[in-house]
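Budget justification note: compute hours in this period were largely spent on complex prediction jobs such as the one shown. Inputs:
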Amino acid sequence: MSELGPVCRQGLDGVSQMPVAEGKSVQQTVELLTRKLEMLGAEKQGTFCVDCETYHTAASTLGSQGQAGKLMYVMHNSEYPLSCFALFENGPCLVADTNFDVLMVKLKGFFQSAKASKIETRGTRYQYCDFLVKVGTVTMGPSARGISVEVEYGPCVVASDCWSLLLEFLQSFLGSHTPGAPAVFGNRHDAVYSPADTMVQYMELFNKIRKQQQVPVAGIR
Amino acid sequence: MEAPPVTMMPVTGGTINMMEYLLQGSVLDHSLESLIHRLRGLCDNMEPETFVDHELVFLLKGQQASPFVLRARRSLDRAGAPWHLRYLGQPEMGDKNRHALVRNCVDIATSENLTDFLMEMGFRMDHEFVARGHLFRKGIMKIVVYKIFRILVPGNTDNTEALSLSYLVELSVVAPAGQDMVSDDMRNFAEQLKPLVHLEKIDPKRLM
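Corresponding output:
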């Protein structure tokens, strides 16, 4: 599939975590997955990266607003290079242009970035017919903490119309690790899917991985 | 908390600091037509552009003396246009030779849920208004002639009343920090609008 100039591609995305295979490292599990995809006939199409920084309300602001310190996530997705996504858990997701990052610098007296909690996933994109599969290694700082798998079904933007198709495809190479329908669909099965929904799924995935124990480093080969 | 003066720092943390250079003036309602006529002659040839915008000003109060101000603006007459979020820093003082007001600015296009998001961040709306007027361009200079309308019932942009019997005229340029020759070009352009309107550097602090 070739892209002609800036194409507004929008499909339906399912983001899930692939547990690391028994006795194997993160890297080995990623290789297992990508090999399965290549055997299916998927074509490599460049790389992707999704990152997430966490901000919390500075103590000085808390008292006057009278609300518990909230966590705000600022995320970027290489599929949407000119955008920046800012979201609160169970709250609104703002889609803005990359100047939002500049604004966060101006706001540093009110919102502090927890530098150590920057998390990102990087990997390869595979195109298989109407499916775009992205398998990424999730890292926090120097350590690999897990694997993310994102599948986008291009032709459809309504969850209820194609979620089962997406699930079936996921099953064909994730096997028993296929997830259930993401919470982001909730009761909005007939709503049009948008990139913000993908970012919410990544945020939930990153939060889940942050809470997990660190994946043991592979034994020496 | 304001960032340190950015005039001398074209780049901070990998991003270019943009500055807004501003000259302001006003004309009484009955002089509007002659001003528009002259602007049409002096400015770039384009279809006369009018706009109706709704601006909301949000404040975030912290322990710092001055709250953080953000301006959220949306078009009332262009469906589908993104919301515009704007941060304006304190005016850079000092150089008396600089002909325009200079302040750091950050402009961000956002999705429609901007106001909900700002509230979630802890911002509270301080005031809102509707601006209705004309837009002209000359190269990188933007000239706006508009009237401010007070919103009588919060959130209801249909029920408004004009704030004054005049139109605000603003000549502005957004350019990277350090380009002070921009204010010379602005001053030269402003000369051509005299005596219809006198555009000058107005320090907002002196009005308070």
